[in-house]
Request: fold
Amino acid sequence: MRLATFFADFADNVARVGAVDGGGARVFDLAAAATRASADASAFASMLSLIDADDAGLDLARTLLEKRGGEADLWRPLAEVVLLAPLPEPRQMRDGMSFATHILQSARGARALQALKADGVEAFEAAMAAPLGDLPAVYRRIPIYYITNRQTVVGPGATVRWPRYSKVMDYELEIAAITKRTRANIPAAEASRHIFGYTIFNDFSARDRQTIEMEGRLGPAKGKSFDGSNAMGPWIVTADELGDPQTLKVDVKVNGETRSTGDTGAMLFSFAEFIADAAQDETIRAGEVFGSGTVGNCCGLEIGRFLQSGDEIVLGVDRIGVLQNTVIAQA
Reply:
């Protein structure tokens, strides 16, 4: 299933949970369907409620689709609703660095930004053309990640206001896995069974601020934490429907121009390994987000092309869909 969070009626100001049809044209109101069927609708109060209901909630959703899917008034055209982030308030967010190409090319891009600031455009171009070097061994030793801001999540169609302290705007195409069970010490062999589904994640980044922060060797802060910095959507594709998340083709378009293409096949650690590592003597809760890290070539820092105010960014991922956002610089 493809599961979305949406506003259908701004008068009641209630976000609803629905199942999107195969053509991506309509959304089925699961709570309304449950109420009509005299079933318990509590699992559809929010996406977190559905996740907490685990397999029983998904089974009920499938049953409602099967038995009530022919009732036209339970469907809403997507063109007439507002899609929100599928999981507007994750319980936690971790973001990894799982693609060697991105790790190497983004490090080169950061050096190029420093060269641009110090010595100008020619120095920037020379730095971007420099050899990549070897991947530090630590990236193959353990999953590298940081905990990001779960309160800055926005959904498809949202306009992201660029923070005033930054002039270098960037996007990052990632895949995010959402957990569905609460447990510590999850073996890697079992971790896939703890994944509810997957969505597209745009980890917007203020590169000039991030470049400074990384000199402190503690990780990104305001470089990746501002209102709207974590865009997700357009919906969650359940794990059973998506299949292997390391077989996805991806692309980035800016103002309709293809900037990057890639695939998810070269992850240094799988989502299962990432979750198992994070769960060592730490309880992972249902409704947490694990970001894959940026797919190789799929951010401006790697290719030396950054965003401008007013740009439309569209991230496309096989078997999930597209996530569209716009960035606007603040006065």
